[in-house]
Model the fold of this input.
Amino acid sequence: MSSIVEGQWAVDVCRERVRRAGEIRAEIGSEWARHMADHPRRIDVVRGETSTSWIFVVETVIPMPVRLSALFGEWLYELRAALDGIVYYLAVRDSGQNPPPAERSIYFPVFTDAAKYDDPNHRGRMKALSDETFAVLRHVQPFNARPDHRSNVLWWIEELARIDRHRQGHALAPHIENVRVGLMDPLRPVGDVMAEPHNLIRIDESAPTPILKFEAPQGWDSQQVRDHLDVTDAITSHLDVTEWVLNSSPPMRSLELSKRMSLCEKFLLDGIVNPLATGDIVLSRTPEH
Done:
């Protein structure tokens, strides 16, 4: 295989990884839809700390399929591998060697601290890359992102992959987004437990998830309480990654999970893999994602 053909194949593998990530995203959506069609949760009331206090809760009767977490981990793997693969391609191209010098140290760097990126030890580990390539990779680093690194696709892929590796694949979870519960007299609300700032609750599938606290007359039982609740379309739930939706910066924060994932795929393909392969990154422009 000629060096030109071999190089094109290496780039095509990176592109294929991003395309495959899109297929996995679609699989996640389909799997979630099948799960929700089985009505995996129910609503109920439980007694609070006093004889008149009650709590509206959501109980899980069918846990989220393990396959969803596994698929999300695969999605992260494909994108991270595409990043590492394109840098390996650049190292081979720049050094003229395959394998390139210090090949085990070659990876796509993701830094929030410019000083750490510029550290001579880091540059030494990436010695197979030309100074120009090293500068291009510096340009797309999260420490250059606006408004900050928490809106940066590269940083989130790195962070989510870390979470996925070290938390047994439980980065992905069901969440309650909206709650609409009608209380009929004489029930009286005394406070909710909805999370701030997005009114987003991660559902604890091992125990009832508390939503709303309220008071009922002395001596009422659970059936009397239920008879005075309007729970038609009480909850809206969706799949998400708690850290991602709560800790990302605008505009990423406002996107639902599938669109955030699609944004990552598009940015990696059109903003990283293809421009690095063709040398078409403009260093005078600060990356927005």
